[in-house]
User: Fold XdhC Rossmann domain-containing protein from Rhizobium meliloti.
Amino acid sequence: MELSTLQILNDARASRRAAVVVSDLSDGSSQAFVEGDRIPPEWAAPVSEVLHSGRPRLLNLEERALFFNVHLPPPRIVAIGAVHISQALARLAPVAGFDMAVIDPRTAFATAERFHGVELIADWPEDVLPARPLDRYTALAALTHDPKIDDYPISAALEAGCFYVGALGSRKTHAARTERLQTQGVPGEAITRIKAPIGLDIGAASPAEIAVAVLAEIIGALRRRDVNLPAEGAK
Assistant:
């Protein structure tokens, strides 16, 4: 691998950005693109495909054998609230390939005994997230039902472009949440990205079932997320 390509990949990894290396198997040349870079229009479809699937692809384009190798940041879930749903989600997330952290300032809930082996931060989200910023490969699940704890990370997740933002609560609860966020200056278009009530509608009742519904919705959002692929020559 060329040193310049390796440097691009290292920089992308450090900043938790996706990268694709396109190698021409006929002459051994390669080009690396970080998500958001301009790419040739004819490569847009395969680059989009590998960014969504996370799997490399070999294609013949214009009589050239091109290998598209993708490098994605490890997807992660940040759960706001050390609640029963978070306990179940923490057991499921690693099976699906997600890193996970739980943030909750309520020390009665945020205990190592309840979250053994899970990254647990017993502090307010507004004190944690500036030093541990959210990003496009993070899913945020707000699960406390407490606006004092949930609202800030929801707003931060929308601003950061998290691929998934979900919040626990009924439609009535979410309507009140929407009003609060609008008052705080969060754009209406961004608010529509919030999945509320959280999780796929599978009739979930128990915390474990809700966790399954939430994880399934997160996986769907990851595989169908918007990718930033400006074509060369675009303004």
Remarks:
- Strands lie at 19-24, 30-34, 57-61, 64-71, 76-80, 99-103, 119-121, 138-142, 164-167.
- The chain has a mean pLDDT of 93.
- The radius of gyration is 20 Å.
- Residues 3-71 form one domain.
